[in-house]
Structure formats: structure tokens, C-alpha cells
Amino acid sequence: MTGPLDEIAQDAALPTFEVFARFCAEAPSAAEAQATVVRMLAVSDDRPSDVVLERQERPGAWMVVARFVVVSIEAHTAVVGVSETLAELLPDEVWAGDQLA
């Protein structure tokens, strides 16, 4: 037996957001900096969908950005969730990208 609330629940879907986290990685090369961030994030509860080199910050230091795809009620909540999950890894910045769905 189903009722009106069951129909509403079946129609409800949470939106999906991109959330980015930027890390400064000390390494002799861009490839090693990217690999360092990938290894660091491997122990995290949230797995990134992509990790890319952004730029060289200074000699021996590289900015690397990880992209997460998060289902959440809103962008701010998605950012807070990723920030809390990554808190021990100390990202330099976490921000919301586009709403994907």
C-alpha cells in the first residue's frame, strides 16, 4: 500500500555539486606533487573524481586541485561536508563549483 508521501519520496532527488579542494604540495616536479596529493587523498573518506595540477606556486611547491562530486541539499552543505572530511589533510581552500544535476 502506498500513500501520497511515498509518491513524494520517489520524486525527490538531491542535487549533485562539484566541490574543489586546493592543496599546496612540496615536490621537485609537477608530477610528483600531483602524485603526493593523490596518495594523501587515498586515505580520506571522500574520494576525488579527479586530481589536477593547477600551477607552480614557487620553486618546489605546486598547487594541486582535487575535484569531488557530492550529492547534497545545497552547495554550501556540500562544501562543509568535504571540508570536514578533509580537515586533517589541511587543504588550502575548499569551494563549490557547478551544480551538475
Topology of this structure?
Blueprint: H1 4-11, E1 16-26, H2 30-41, E2 50-58, E3 61-71, H3 75-86, E4 93-99
Antiparallel strand pairs: 1-3, 1-4, 2-3
Write a short abstract of this structure:
This protein is α+β, with helices and mostly antiparallel strands. It contains three helices and four strands; from the N terminus they run H-E-H-E-E-H-E. A hairpin with a 2-residue loop joins strand 2 and strand 3 (61-71).
Query: N-to-C terminal Cα separation, in Å?
Result: 31 Å
Mean pLDDT: 89
Low-confidence stretches: none
Give me the count of strands.
4
Could you spell the SSE succession in H and E letters?
Answer: HEHEEHE
Describe the global form.
elongated
Estimate the strand proportion.
35-45%
How many helical elements?
A: 3
Gyration radius over CA:
17 Å
Specify the helix fraction band: 25-40%
Q: Would you tell me the structural class of the helices and strands?
A: alpha+beta
Summarize the biggest pleated sheet. 4 strands, antiparallel
- Order of strands side by side in the largest beta sheet? 2-3-1-4
